[in-house]
Specification:
Length: about 200
């Protein structure tokens, strides 16, 4: 049975993989999950997708989806009972472009300032905050907002962004979030593949 499901290579804490899992869970599409450890990627994943980033979805006909947005769009094309796709496309694409571009750029330099020559964490935090201030409720960026908030929770809580904080808190407390954050052991060839989402 599991053999017939698409295979998802995923990493629990990767925000790109999280948003792919969120869309899969929202669509009700089942996949066979292969939990990846980034420093020890399975050769099967690298063979399927040499760029070797998670998530990767391998469909039954051999099609490989190696971008989280492609996984989301594929899942929601199968079924979209919560009408995620009814949101204004142009607005959504604009927000995702803003997220994957400038917000991610500044998030990395805020979170990992010591890895970037001359990066001043507070400056990048201020730049990234501009995106957050403009935010509309778009579920696929929540995993990134969660990372941003967790980097310095005290600072984040002191910003007085009540809608954003409420939105994040509801997301973190939701059954959907718990379902996509369930822990799985690292997958290796011949291991059983748990079905994701599990009993949602
Ligand atoms: N544009 C890709 C980005 C995926 C990505 O960068 N994933 C990270 C983990 S969060 C990754 O797999 N990095 C490769 C590595 O760390 O070796 C997508 O949206 O799927």
């Amino acid at each position: 049975m599991t053999q017939e499901l698409p295979t998802l290579y995923s990493f629990r804490r990767c925000p790109y993989a999280m948003r792919a899992r969120l869309a899969l869970a929202a669509s009700g599409q089942l996949v066979a999950l292969r939990e990846v450890v980034l420093r020890d990627k399975p050769p099967e994943m690298i063979e399927a997708s040499p760029k070797a980033t998670v998530p990767v979805l391998v469909l039954g006909d051999g099609t490989i989806l190696e971008e989280s947005l492609d996984v989301m769009h594929w899942a929601l094309a199968q079924a979209d009972p919560e009408e995620w796709l009814s949101a204004d496309y142009a607005t959504m694409d604009e927000l995702v472009t803003q997220n994957d571009g400038p917000f991610k750029h500044h998030l990395d330099r805020y979170k990992y300032a010591n890895r970037y020559d001359g990066a001043v964490a507070e400056e990048h935090r201020a730049e990234a905050s501009k995106t957050l201030i403009e935010l509309d409720a778009r579920l696929e960026i929540l995993p990134f907002v969660r990372q941003f908030a967790n980097t310095d929770r005290t600072w984040f809580d002191a910003q007085g962004w009540p809608h954003l904080r409420g939105w994040l808190e509801r997301f973190l407390a939701s059954d959907r979030f718990k379902a996509v954050m369930k822990k799985y052991p690292q997958w290796r060839a011949d291991d059983p593949e748990p079905t994701f989402p599990a009993g949602e």
